[in-house]
## 1
Amino acid sequence: MTDIILEARGIVKTFPGVRALDGVDLKVQRGEVHALVGENGAGKSTLMLVLGAIHKPDEGEIFVEGRPVSVSSPHDANEQGISIVFQELSLVPSLSIAENVFANRQPVNMINMLDRRTLHRQTREMLRLFDLDRLDPATLVKDLSISNQQVVEILKAMSINPKVLILDEPTSSLTESEVEQLFINIRKLKEEKGISFIYISHHLPEIFRIADSVTVLRDGKKVCDADVKGIDEEFLITNMVGRKIENMYGHREETDTVGDVLFEARGISRGDDFRDVSFSVRSGEIVGFSGLVGAGRTEVGRAIFGAEPIDAGELLMEGKPLSIRKPEEAIARGIGYLSEDRKSQGLFLDFSIKANLIANHLQDFCGGTPFMQSRKVNDYSRGCVRDYRIISRNIDQQLKFLSGGNQQKVLVGTWFGIKPRLLIVDEPTRGVDVGAKSEIYMLLRRLARNGVGIIMISSDLMEILGVSDRIMVMQAGRVVGEISGRDATEERVIAMAAGTVNGGGEA
Amino acid sequence: MKEWIARVARQREFMIFVIVVVVTVVMTFASPHFLTTGNILALLLGLSIEAIVVVAMTNLMVSGGFDMSVGSVLAFTSAATATFLRMGMPIAVAVLIGLAIGATIGLINGFFVAKVGLNPFVTTLSGLSIYRGLTLIITGGQNLAGLPLAFRAIGQTRFFGVQTPIIIALLLILIGEILLRNSRFFRQVYYIGGNEKAARLSGIRVDRMKMLSYVLTGLFAAMAGVVMTSRLGAASVTAGTGMELRVITAVIIGGASLQGGEGSVLGSFLGILLMGLILNAMNLLGVSVYWQTFVVGATLLTAVVIDQLGKLRNEGKLVIPRLRPRKATDQG
């Protein structure tokens, strides 16, 4: 008899028009890390919210340690030992670590006044779990680093002494060393306290680093569950997508030709961010920029786009010097930039798909008159939605209701509109599921085929290797290597990015 | 210990306190009339009515809310209470009904904001006109004087030479400060203002708490109305005009933000004290009264600009150049 701590049987949850969960089963053993994977919209989040009693299931049962439980509020779920660490931080920046950890459950004295001494002592004990007891519990959360904020978030979920801790995309805002620390902590809690984890992630390599077993969801149904030891990444992808993805990265075909040099940077520098960076992009070519977080890749991209200044060096477009001081000038010269943070920098989430797609080239829809012509707008938008396979109800749907992957397709689409000659894409598939990733790669390749030069900045090594025609490796603000896409291997790129020279100050 | 001092020094309350002390010291030397019992009491009396409202407004703004109607509610409850008194109603009953009217108006505001989901600014902006309008309707635009002597005693008595409005205001501020800082019940507003979704998940009954916060601003505006009516011995139809702006200004100077999640009663009190001090100083130094409104605005703008600079520096977006160049050894 195995020791099952949490079991869900036949969970059904429908929202108007969608069957988000369709008879899902889930079994979590005591003291294991159970990964939950699936594409966006597969039902991972809904299942999490059902387990946390934030959504009420239409059908199905939940068992904790073999006993059927009925939970009707997040509070009930906590009582049963189920606690969620949310992806979007659920902290109050202006309150202390202690008051965030014990939100609304602060120890009080007889007249219901906070007992700060006990509160801080208990918080210090919890911080010790993560070897962070040097932090003062009275420190305000807004003064903490993002990774320490995440620790507070986990402690907050831990403070109810959970049996099962649900982690929703916990690494999305962490650097590699912070991810490593998180994994050490998860293993520690698992081994020392026997806590089980449900680990939701898009990032498949992580699953193999941290999880013991995995359940795959697709279209609201459980596809399979397995021991992580017995499977590989391809198995997961095949099950998640429901078809084998061939040619995931949209490799170049023999017929594709690379044209003349389109864009060139000669010795551009700015302060400590990047120094003496030179490279060129040919038309029809995808140049990948690899390197560790903080190596200066994003800064170079933003500098070319005119979003940040350049101290020295020059930029050339088709051999002619370019002077770009503002993004508007870059756009006017046919340079597009896809920001790594699509939510805050690239898209109008409250606006419709249509409004987003036309936003940066409104004049194209006026036909020489001062007024927009709605037929042109609609035709164009429908074309985009069809061509880019944006899954949506219609072109008037608000962007915030689309999945991350589809939002990203809209963002790529908005830049196609200006008919760019050079497109800079920064982390184009962050937070995007496998199926949509592949479609975004196809889109980029299609642009390249039309003669556009593409600079792709990415921390995802497989993406860099799979998509790029040529790879530039940056380390501590300098270009330390250039490899053609055909010759590149994981090992070579990593070795270059890590650097043989001690760059000083670079993690 | 050092850490503790550093944290206290970073508190907004401390910053304003320092400014208050500086202004006080400077004024003591600048004007012989400043540091006199008479002047200090006059200063405190002048801000006592608004200080009462500041307590509830702080709680509301920490929760992320906002109430533009307090000045009008003050006038309306004042007029209502005076009307009841002139009808011969017992004082206690008239006052209680006045307070109940204020609380009910707060409940209505809170209902529209928390349950119907209207924007707090728009909801209470309507209130600002509605209750001022009702005041004019029930009074016919006339001030209501001739109130019973016993009622006037509420606001006109002195204890140890200090007028009751000052005592009432200071008491409410003390109680408000303790409750908002230390009681688990009122701490809930920080979670609501800081992260409403998270507050719900922590089991906080957000809507109820929001409505209560509006009830409190209504109730405190009514209390201020009663005290003011009693002190003046009459209900004035223009009472509390523009008060909402001064009260909100004080709360923001005191460290609250319009997004909610921060602020304290002590800070807000220091904020209103600072504004009162500056106006008092300008009076004593013979600056034209026409400058007063200007100075209130300038003080607010200065406070939020300083705050924003601090935030930008924390986020690394603002680099304040050092006066002396760094030595090379610093970088190793």
## 2
Amino acid sequence: MSHHSGQATVRTGTLRGIDAIPVEVQVDVGRGLPAFRIVGLGDIAVQEARERVRAAIRSSGLSFPDARVTVNLAPAPLKKHGTGFDLPIAAGILVATGQVEPRFINDSWLTGELALDGGLRPVNGMLCHAIAAAHERRVLVCSVDSEPEISAVDALHWRGIDRLSDVCRQSTPTHRQLPPTNQACTADLGSVAGHQSAKRALEIAAAGALNVLMVGPPGSGKTMLARCLPGILPPMSHAEALETAVIHSVAGLDSSSASGGTRPFRAPHHASTLRGLIGGGSPIRPGEVSLAHNGVLFLDELPEFGPATLQALRQPMEDRRISLVRAEGRVDLPADFMFIAAANPCPCGFLGDPDKRCTCTETSISRYASRIGGPLMDRIDICLRVDRIDPGLLMSTEEVDESTAVRTDVQRARTMAESRGASNRLLNGVPLLRACSLTPDCVQRVEEIASHARLSGRGVTRLLRVARTIADLESTPSVMSEHLDEAASYRILEGR
Amino acid sequence: MRPPDGWEIDKGDPRYPETLLTTPDPPKRIYGLGNPNLLTPGLAVIGARKSTPYGRSCAHLFAGWAASRGVVIVSGAAVGCDQAAHRAALEVDGATVAVLGCGADVDYPRDATQLLDVIRARGAVISEQPWGSTPRRWAFSRRNRIIAGLSHSVLVVEASLPSGTFSTADHALEADREVLVVPGSILSPECRGSNRLLVQGATPITDVSELAAVLGLLGAPEDAEHTVSHDLSRRDAIMTALVANPMRPDDLAREFALDIVTVARRLGELERDGKVIRLRDGRYSPVENKRRRPH
């Protein structure tokens, strides 16, 4: 094989949503005026690979061919994004020019960004590349820095390198080892003083994966309570952990805590854009709803989020995933989160506060409440009032671990719900009634509550869903009158 | 534009209410809808907009009783205690006058539209603002002097501190009207203003016989129907505590050393039985003691 002509193909991939779609990098080094072209719908980052590849090859003490170099990314109609093509393109050129033996790239999947000095760094979505490589039974060749990220993938063979020149150093493919699952709480319930009814409501919400709205004045501990939620949820299964880690990997965030089993807690600010919340852009970046997948999405100051943003939350809350439709086609991202929100009771925040006076008018209070909007309120199962607690109580509280015991109860309740076939939050209509198996006496109770509280049909559904979850926490097969009474105390307050 | 059935009474007109002439600053012209003959000395029943069931119960009790004895009930149609007073008067086919800060033909507050229509038909709605005037803040504190001026006495059922209700009480004192106050719990923020008025020398009203004495009415009833009372026969500690003062579930749990689940369930049960309601601020309070629920 002549030093200045030849061909090579290298396997790599490009991200689409949370999948790495396989791409073949075909390199042709042939006669003609020296040139370097990349075809096959690469974005600007792919085009810029030419400069990085040329410099990296030279800095690694290898030679860049003085010939006509053509790179095709197949399949050609698929749009390719990002800097991960640097390594496969450079490796392809080195193989095509006979500087590296083909056995180093055969049956491999190469992904990585090159620095001008020949160094290699990971790109976003390394976990997706690892999953795709394992699926194709190829050896993943990537930056050695990717180890914490890709170690969650079962049955992956990979080779970590830190410079381009190492591509021909055949070290034995490393076998991955699953890190121990650690259940780290964002905050422990024991660290929150007082708030007995709020803690109870969170326990019920966690058991049924129900959506929660907390209403209370500023500084009453709403955020602190929300942070306790991930810690009382059962740990993620390995499959769930991997799903969540993949999304974090695509977004370029640390995915190792998710793959270690810690449920994500996402608290976007109300100034976040719609795209930041639901995802978007090109290439598509997962939004907060997807980053909270299998975890908790917390929206503080709910009425401050724009109406368009809150409307956009409806689809993921209903379908447990978000569909982003773009010119290149539709991309579905998982978005199965527990929703918890906090709101002030009025614009000034002090309505109902025993010490501070509310300065709002009746009109401004109802206008503020209406900003949340009916469709979102319809999806709130539990509404609770959170008030500032007595400072004396704060000082007399000792920090104890409360979350572990609650998590055990939550786990038991969920197991009970699953034994009926469906999670409580998905229950509706006839299956919900069947799950509750109300006695005629209890049916009458429901009617009494509904007439006193002027509940709509949806309101009754929410009441039963919460009551069913309370019964699950007590391992009671049918919903009893006291469960209904307690459930009624978590309903949404309308008007006065 | 004047509505077809609207009337205007200028100062100097023989129909102009005499009671208003004795005030420091009588309105030059009164615009009204309904029955102009009702502008006789009445009982003003006023209270906070951000009211509790306690305030609304008291407004309902005293306004209803006085209206049934032929006293005209004057108030401002505001959300809360004012509306409870008007409604109580209408329920016993009594007379009631609503004094507005906007035009007498304007529906404000908006959720009082229906109530105002009934008052226009069976009582009177008046204002010193010309027809069609939109609600403005200053006009509402000005109209308070008319509420006080049209009345023989002013009954404050519930007022926090500070409160718009105070301005009506001040106007009542300026016009030499009697200020009557229903005392409230010293722990309830909604009653701080009314209790303050008592400290300053207002006359306390704790049942209808005291109101009868002040209004110079005879034949105060002895029946239990006209006292604020809750069924405490079950010796229920939680209910007793709530009658004294609305409380949050957490406070009740601490007070009675009960776990929160027990308290939540008991409150749910009391609410289902129609004995308590959950207030917007999360506290539980006994229901408005309007009429006996059929059992």
